[in-house]
Structures are given as C-alpha cells and as structure tokens.
Design goal:
This is Thioredoxin. InterPro entries: Thioredoxin, Thioredoxin-like_sf, Thioredoxin_CS, Thioredoxin_domain. Pfam families: Thioredoxin (PF00085). The longest helix has 19 residues, at 108-126. The N and C termini lie far apart (46 Å). This protein has a single domain (4-126), classed as Glutaredoxin, CATH 3.40.30.10. The chain is globular and about 45 Å long. The chain is α/β, with parallel strands linked by helices. It has five helices and five strands; from the N terminus they run βαβαβαββαα. It has helices spanning 11-16, 31-46, 61-66, 93-105, 108-126; strands at 4-5, 20-26, 51-56, 74-79, 82-88.
C-alpha cells in the first residue's frame, strides 16, 4: 500500500479508521527526511495491513504545531486510535522494522489500562 498524504482535514478519520497508523512528519528541505523517505515507502509496501501517512510540515503547519512537532523527521505510531510511539529522527530499515514489530506486539488491553490510569491521575491532580 502506498503512503497517504495526511492533512488536518483527514487526520482524525485516518486515525480512527486504521488499526495501526504510522505518520511521517517531514519537509522537502530536510535532508534526514529525504534519507528516511525511501525506508518509510518500502515499509508501506511490505506491510499492507498498516496505514502509512506522510504529513508535509510546510503545507500542514497547524497540524504539525498541534502535534507538537519541533524536529523533523518525526515518526508517530497510533494503534487502535491511541498514540503509542513518537520519536524525532530518521531511522534505518532495521530500526523501523523493530518499531513496527513493537507496535504490532503491544497488548492493547494493557495500553488502554495505562491510559485510563494516567487520565485518572491527571483528573485527581486537577480536583
């Protein structure tokens, strides 16, 4: 599956409709982004069950700001609508394969429990 262009208009729907979603935040002028692009594209072709999206931070500045992007490339992964990975920096193929496998291997019941506990703790701090 080829990568999809992700914009502010289609981000929410893409996150909600993807079991696993990897987002590459990039810009045309960014050297490390250009190094990572073929790695990301190759992974998208090898893993047809995963959604791969690219966010052009120059074109989608509001989206990049809302996502807290301060360095590019930044790779984010969502699983069942939950952000489970976010890291700036270009990865090589082996590193990216390890991240993909780690996201696949997550126990989502455990992740949802951790999210609920973190939200409860935050609510208690504010109360």
């Amino acid at each position: 599956m080829a990568t999809q262009e992700i914009t502010q208009e289609n981000l929410t729907q893409t996150v909600e409709n993807s079991d696993i979603l990897f987002l590459d935040f990039w810009a045309d002028w960014c050297g490390p982004c250009k190094q990572f692009a073929p790695v990301f594209e190759e992974a998208s072709e090898q893993h047809s069950d995963i959604t791969f999206g690219k966010v052009d931070t120059e074109d989608q500045q509001e989206l990049a700001a809302a996502a807290g992007i301060s360095s590019i490339p930044t790779l984010m992964a969502f699983r069942e609508g939950i952000l489970v990975f976010s890291q700036p920096g270009a990865l090589n193929g082996n590193q990216f394969d390890q991240v993909i496998q780690a996201v696949r291997d997550l126990d989502m019941d455990e992740v949802r429990q951790q999210v609920a506990e973190a939200e409860a703790a935050e609510a208690n701090k504010q109360a």
